[in-house]
Amino acid sequence: xxxxxxxxxxxxxxVHPVSSFRGHEARGVRLLQxxxxxxxxxxxxxxxxxxxxxLWCVNAGYGHESVVEAxxxxxxxLPYATGYFDLGxxxxxxxxxxxxxxxPGDLDHVYFCLGGSDAVDSxxxxxxxxxxxxxxxxxxxxxxxxxxxxxxxSGGAGLTALPAFHEGFGLxxxxxxxxxxxxxYRNPVGQDPQAIIDASLAELRAKLAxxxxxxxxxxYVEPIQGSGGxxxxxxxxxxxxxxxxxxxxxxxxxxxxxxxxGRTGPLFACEDEGIVPDLMTVAKGLTSGYVPxxxxxxxxxxxxxxxxxxxxxxxxxxxTYSAHPVSAAVALEVLALYEGGLFENGRRMGAxxxxxxxxxxxxxxxxxxxGRGMLAAVELVTDKRNKTPLPAALDPANRLFDRxxxxxxxxxxxxxxxxxxxxxxxCTADEIDAIVERSRKVLDLTLEDP
Length: 450
Ligand code: PMP
Hints:
This protein is an alpha/beta fold. It has helices at 2-13, 17-20, 53-56, 65-77, 90-102, 116-133, 154-159, 193-211, 237-247, 270-273, 300-310, 325-358, 396-406, 429-448, and strands at residues 32-36, 39-42, 47-50, 109-113, 141-145, 176-179, 216-221, 251-255, 279-282, 294-298, 366-372, 375-383, 388-389, 409-410, 412-414, 418-421. It is built from 14 helices and 16 strands.
């Protein structure tokens, strides 16, 4: 069968580091052949609801002809114009202006790159240049949050707080520091929101004192931590941390690679928090996965400080595919679809998803249900009172993923036994209900046979 020979070629030649190097445990690729709306079809012709929008990215859903047409028209007219220096194309300029108009506060300057990882690494370079421009190059230490994820390029992988991204890679760098996560369900200080905020503030203050507050360049947060297991901070946590950073002149970076573009309701999750970060990264939903693109937003003071510091000199940062016209044309069309009804649908379906998943709370295996909008997680435990995780020996991540797949549902399953959801914003009410019902079936099957 074609899919068998492709799977064999994949095993032999295509490197997927997260799974390829697992020797005899390698699971082999599952081939998808097409997709429409929120439904993907596998190589055997079976339909599955994509409860994870690819990798939290296909926010608009699959199969929008207008996006395909926008890309094709741009390819025909002008497939490439470098954004590296000042040879421009219309689409990225228009896109930057549209995004600047919608971004919180004066995040008016947009640098385009290829995805989230290089967006994060670009912020590290811009921030170093910013402090160099302010005559404070000793501000070269970066702080991020436990359980955080900031990409796979070296700088961001060091800011990431997941062990697999460090071990064997010589990370984190000695200029990278962490404070503990705000993980509400499993927080050593308990689940009281104010106690968690106070503990995080105390820890960040202690960290600033320990490493030298005049040495700290920036603090990175995800408005909701995604890859760490969909960890929603207590209300007010982001604002409290943002204010503490401002007090100490530490730049505040919001990594909205997952939370941007309607994932939690508004265009950017920072809007829910009532804050304006100094820099903000986005990717994924920017082009909804149709083509790669990421972006860094900078506030006026960041942009102007860098410009003043540079004077007549070039600031040596840029990629061949920065501000790619085809990606920008896609992003413009995707934005039109979002604002033409998808954001609104996503907000309604997000409420339905959260309400549906909340009903799973009574299930004997469910310890926690959390999320906001179309970003959610269900955390499984074997003992609710002691919050005992599923035994690691059972490989819960793969078992849960496989069981959901058998039920016709794609979810993300995290190693600790957490089901993650990030469905396309175009989902219908029936699809949302099916996501919840199929999840319940996965829980029942896991209860019968862990
Ligand atoms: N930051 C965050 C918060 C992310 O979730 C991700 C990807 N999951 C990245 C950065 C890296 O983005 P990319 O995979 O597009 O490089």
